[in-house]
Amino acid sequence: MNHYSYIAFIPLLPLASFLVLGIFGKKYFKTFAGIVGTTALLASTVLSLYTAYRYFMIDGKVNGVFQKMIALKYTWLQFSPSVSIDMGIILDPIAVMMLVVVTFVSLMVHVFSLGYMKGEERFATYYAFLSLFTFSMLGLVLSANIFQIYMFWELVGVSSFLLIGYYFEKPSAVAAAKKAFIVTRFADLGFLIGILILSFYSGTLDFGVLIQKLTTAQSPEFIAISTASFLGISMLTWGLILVFIGGAGKSAMFPLHIWLPDAMEGPTPVSALIHAATMVVAGVYLVARLFPVFSFDGAALEVVTYVGACSALLAAIIACTQTDIKRVLAYSTMSQIGYMMFSLGVSKYGGEKGLGYMASMFHLFTHAFFKSLLFLGAGAVIHFVHSNDMKDMGGLRKLMPITHITFLVACLAIAGIPPFAGFFSKEEILLAAFNANKLIYGIAVFTSALTAFYMFRLYFSIFWNKEAAINHVHHHAEGTWSMKIPLIVLAICVIAVGFLPIAQLVTSDGAALETHIDLVFSALPVTLAIVGILVATLLYKKASTLPDTIELGLGVFYTTAYRKFYIDEIYLFITKKIIFNLIGRPAAWMDKNIVDGFIILLANTTATISEKIKGFQSGKVQNYALYFFGGVIGLAVLFIYLWN
Amino acid sequence: MNDIPLTHILFLSTALFFIGIYGLFTRRNMITMLMSVELILNSVNINFVAFNKWLFPNSLDGIFFTIFVITIAAAEAAVAIAIIINLYRSHHSIDVEDASELKY
């Protein structure tokens, strides 16, 4: 029925590249590692574009509805006739869309890294890790089985850990890598329990069957899961919320977002790939993948909505105060993912009401392009000035013309100015929010104005503001062509992708959705965005003392936002003061005194006994002969007289 | 020959056996110990022959065993003497008490 089995090559090519570079890279590919990784990925990208073409244009549609297809299926672990862990490949609109996003952005990052990471000591290792990440992410996207997605989910976590800690000689990078790993691991615990709950009640691990069973209101599985309850909340809600916690951990949703800003310790192209465009949207993808089930449970969707909105607003406020350009971008990522989340949250399944779902996926798609462009641009800037701090930048527009223009395009896109990509997707999200929940709509519009403000604050601080410091001028050129080409390509995409008919292609039930841009509706957000940009222009275009005065004027509010609402401190308080003291120490005491004590007692007893009896081994042959003889006599007596 | 009762022969073999054991445990000279081992083996041989005659006069199984034992004893003597020579080379003595390094 389908000839899609070649899709297996899309993730397998990066895997091959990872193996080759990981094993032989240091010896044989010291300088060619980048070429090897990039070539493998180029092939994957071509295959995914071809797949997207075939799926969307030729044979994905049956009766006007895009079908879910299983391109490959291989039973890996069979527990019982109905429960098995399969390695499969699923094809549906979101999977195909993600396939394109992941391979394309990854390819851009691979190319950009050729210039950015040139001359690094562990160049081959870097590309090996990038390939590993791409493989895991593609595997995640194509997973047809909830357990398979969990495995790739963890693989993605590992490769993210490896890449954040790439500069492992820097203590801050090591701490950031550990933090990212522990926080997401903690969230993944929720995910695992959620998987167990859902699959326990539905009796399957396969996405298709699971969704089908849990969305049929009359099915015994659905009745079982919705009537069973724990602490007054039904098991369906529990399962979905736990799964969402896993997604929130990966997607850096409040309050599990603390790892994302620190993750910027990794090389900048990695931030572009993992912590902006692909991995962090895994949580959104997960919710979208299980969306039919989510849409059956209002409470879980409510949680998704409010967590998303909260993260969007909080991150936008923090982003206005940060001075490290990568951190600003990190918070902006968090904010945009918040948009995608609450957009899913306000959506319903199917038809016109599935607008939020479509908008979320559309925003995911456009965000991947403009956010990776922003990060790569920031990477080029950092490469140029050797600093992450806005204070060291300014006036770079003449020195880095291409970076300047592309960065501006991306800023306009994220601010939601027509006709750039972000405008279209954000409009859909706002419309979905407006139809469903006015409070969320209010938050979204306010955040969108803030977004415009902080993005242009960033833009002006880097490229305008004060004059460029002298030492940059004769320093070196803007960057190699391998760094400029991805910027240009992405900028073109940012302008173009907004016009793609995503509403026709990626919807909750697969049927095309009619959307139109309502000028009256768009007026408010666009005006607010322009106001945000104007305020930023006023404050940051020329170097002035005005921003500092405002900072002082805001006093406590500014400090609170600058200190990221003290969330890190709260975490530290909870972990160091409460968990370590109340749980860690008693556990350590138990371990030292009771568990270890028992083992030490055993060892001491053995030592004492052997000390007492070691005299038997005297080294005298005749003594041994005597023992032997005694033993023989003893056995003889035993067998002759005592054994019946 | 048939007049000699079995018990006499068993008495002889038991005596030989315990003389051998006694020698094995009390003598420190390895050659004497080797000779004691030969005594023990021979007491077993006598037992084999006697019981063969007593229980299965028409078969030779026990006697075969005896011949086996004699053969093995010869081989064992060769190995033992080789050990004794090596011991002498390394310790300049064939007293087993002198070679007691291999202990706790």
What's the gist of this structure?
The complex is a heterodimer of chains A (644) and B (104). Chain A is mainly alpha-helical. Chain A contains 27 helices and six strands.
Percentage of residues in DSSP E strands of chain A: under 5%
Radius of gyration of chain B: 17 Å
| Tally of DSSP helical segments of chain A | 27
Q: Tally the helices of chain B: what do you get?
A: 3
Mean pLDDT of chain A: 82
What fraction, in percent, of the residue positions of chain A are helical? over 70%
Query: Would you state the CATH class of chain B?
Result: Mainly Alpha
Largest interface: A-B, 11 and 13 residues
Average of the residue pLDDT scores of chain B: 89
Which stretches of chain A are poorly predicted, pLDDT < 50 over at least 5 residues?
Answer: none
Write out key terms for the chains shown.
heterodimer, A: 644 residues, mainly alpha, two-stranded antiparallel ribbon, 6 strands, B: 104 residues, Helix Hairpins, elongated
Describe the structure.
The complex is a heterodimer of chains A (644) and B (104). With 644 residues, chain A is mostly helical. Chain A is 72% helix and 4% strand. In chain A, the strands form three sheets. Chain A has a two-stranded antiparallel ribbon with strand order 1-2. In chain A, strands 3-4 form a two-stranded antiparallel sheet. In chain A, strand 3 and strand 4 (84-91) form a beta hairpin. In chain A, helix 3 runs antiparallel to helix 4. The longest helix of chain A has 47 residues, at 567-613. Chain A starts with 8 loop residues before the first helix and ends with a helix. Chain B is an all-alpha fold. Chain B has one domain (6-91): Orthogonal Bundle (Helix Hairpins), CATH 1.10.287. Chain B has three helices and no strands. The model of chain B has no long low-confidence stretch (mean pLDDT 89). Chain A binds chain B through residues 614-615, 617-622, 625-626, 629, and chain B through 21, 24-25, 28, 33, 96-97, 99-104.
